[in-house]
Amino acid sequence: MSAPRTAGRTPPRTLPPPDAGELVELARGSARRRPAGRARRSRLGHRWFTPWLYLAVPLAFLVTFTCVPVVSLFSYSLTDWDGLSPTSHYVGLENYTELFTRPQLFRVFWVSLFYLAGSAVQICLALYFATVLSFHTRLRNLFKGILFFPYLINGVAIGFVFLYFFQPGGTLDTVLHWFGAGPHLWLGDPDLVNTSLAGVSVWRFMGLNMVLFIGAIQSIPPELYEAAALDGANRWQQFRHIIAPSIRPIVSLSVILAVSGALSVFEIPYVMTGGANNSQTFVIQTIKLAFNFNKTGLASAAAVVLLAFVLLITWLQRLLFPDERVEQT
Length: 329
Prior knowledge:
Blueprint: H1 20-32, H2 36-76, H3 94-101, H4 103-106, H5 109-134, H6 140-152, H7 155-166, H8 171-178, H9 193-218, H10 222-230, H11 235-246, H12 248-263, H13 267-272, H14 282-291, H15 296-320
Helix pairs in contact: 2-15, 3-15, 5-9, 5-12, 6-9, 12-15, 14-15
Membrane topology: Multi-pass membrane protein
Organism: Streptomyces bauhiniae
Domain ABC transmembrane type-1: 108-317
């Protein structure tokens, strides 16, 4: 037998064992190379958690001061609680049955028609002043401040101011006397009291609608006005074809606020008349049911009905006059 041939073959190299420094670097590199899926899940978790962290406080206030009271209101409406007793009894829908079988409880909604008419006047005046003051007018900032200032005043203070304004021989009667008109019982005559109170509401809230309309009008690109002016359009044509279509969502919002406000008027008639002389609103009646007659369950049912009316009218308004949506391509 001949010996194995080993000529021309290179013996295998033996790598030296790594030192301690190389082992540390290898360990650090493997630690840095985490799976891509785990890192992606971590980023998604942070993206999901961060918005809720910022929303935690507003949601807590919303649940505490809106959701919980609404649920409590509905639960009280199903009981005969008088507002004072520690216990109450479940009566089901008896409070709602009493509401809908007593027409005098819904007769006060006729008073809201005066405030609805006042709201229409209020929106028209606000739209007029907003259109005029949106263009270059002398002292327009001064007039904006004057017209918006009543909205900043507390409703109770406004009620006391106009209480003296409408009293017999007061400011209004004095001014009318200069023109030969006699005095009137502005708050004592059932035929005049609701018109007077609605006029106060117009004076108070017109500035808010004006500011909303001004913001909407000033968001219209000025190039549209320039193009319309080059085509020979006057101010009325610019308002009709440029301003009115552009501010339609804000007008819709103002109508919703006006309707809900007309149904839930409280401060001004309560301070000025207390609901006397046929000026009692639905909210004033609800307050009296709860605190004067100790019928908190019935008053809660009335409040639920009012909330349902406001939501229904808002839904109908959004259904009949939907916002125009611009499709992005």
